[in-house]
Amino acid sequence: MGILDRLMTMIKAKISTFLDRHEDPRETLDYSYEKQLELLTNVKRGIADVVTAKKRLELQKAKLESNIESLNNQAREAVSLGRDDLARIALERKKDSMAQIESLTAQIADLENEQTKLVNTERRLSAKVEAFRTKKETIKAQYSAAEAQVKITESVTGISEEMADVGMSVQRAEEKTESMKARSQALDELIDAGTLQDLTGDQTKVEEELSKIKSSTEVDQELKILKEEATTKKKDKTEETPEAQQ
Amino acid sequence: MIVRILGDNQYVLDSKHLDKLNELDNRMIHHLSNEEVDGFNSCLNEMIHTVRENGTPLDPAEIRPSDLIVPSPDITPEEARKLFTKDGIIPD
User: Fold this and answer.
1) CB of A122 within 8 Å of any CB in chain B?
2) What is the pTM of this model?
3) What angle do helix axes A203-245 and A84-142 make, rounded to 10 degrees?
4) Cβ partners under 8 Å of residue A240, min gap 6
């Protein structure tokens, strides 16, 4: 059995369970319509979920990007203080952050794509639901029970196929969103708790060390200034002395 | 005939393309059982392309059942395999 046959069998099976649900075919019409509206709400919720997940990833990306900025500064500072070892740590962290950013960019694009698909799905389903609603009323009003049966089977079969398709799309989007949510949560934890801080976690250490060096350099410099002042004063005194002798 | 591409749209397509679609379907199953991802994807792309290029999209307000259902353009081999395993039907 091929994929095409398999898909057709699966969808037909779904539709026939649906059609068998009600004795009175007119009830099938109303029930189907109810289900269509539910599905439409689901699609809308699906879109909102995808958008939320995407925003979250974008936030993380921005966070990591600002991380890179400060890691760059730290590396530069470390080099100027002659501490290549610290500069190396900062640069390694920067590299890890960049890899994360790259993967986030791909995930964001993926969700963007999912969003576009769902928006199109919603548009298409809305049109079909509206068409179904009109048809449903016509069938109810104009046909005898026997005639209606045929018409109902026809239109319910058509719309059920659409619904099965949309249902699958929503489910796939949900699965994708869920898995990205899980991953982004893990990433959040890494960023916050500082393992991306093997990257930024030790960042505090690099910062500490840098500021230690900085402050000791400052002390050295101040000391130097004081020494210079002292020498100048001595010199002044020796210069003053001959004047006093005059 | 009417062909549905899952997650995409329904198309009105001349039935002369049916043989080609069936042949691509057979090749996809072959690639699937040999775990050839590239081959699977290229057949899938060709299948989607055949429908989109030769068919015209059905008016969204028309409610009609399809004669043929084609998988979603981004279906993965794993997902395709799942179609069969779910109900215990495994391709040869």
Assistant:
1) no
2) 0.74
3) 140
4) none
